[in-house]
Design goal:
two-stranded antiparallel sheet; 5 helices; 2 domains; 67% helix; mainly alpha
């Protein structure tokens, strides 16, 4: 059930503005037609997904001093958390690492 406050926020576009400003956790250009790019990449790469995550961690750590500073460090952190979740999920299913 949508509360009155949620309706007001939606009508004013508050939630949309807040989401658009979060370039680390939910950049608007990575969600097209309701599909998050990260979910499409996970589906397309299967077991290679963790390598994709590792590559992005390295990219953002490599460039943070020269491009976006703390924002890039937060993006590296986001990908690291995703990698940790991926590994924990896999370990919970198989009691070990993926090969």
């Amino acid at each position: 059930m949508i509360t009155r406050m949620e309706k007001l926020r939606e009508a004013a576009g508050v939630d949309k503005k807040e989401k658009e400003l979060d370039m680390v956790n939910s950049p608007p250009h990575y969600n097209q037609r309701g599909v998050e790019a990260i979910d499409a990449i996970r589906a397309a790469t299967d077991v290679g997904f963790e390598y994709y995550l590792q590559g992005n961690i390295m990219k953002y750590l490599w460039r943070y001093r020269y491009k976006n500073g703390v924002e890039d460090l937060k993006k590296a952190e986001w990908y690291l958390k995703a990698l940790i979740e991926e590994q924990e999920s896999w370990e919970g299913k198989s009691n070990g690492r993926r090969s």
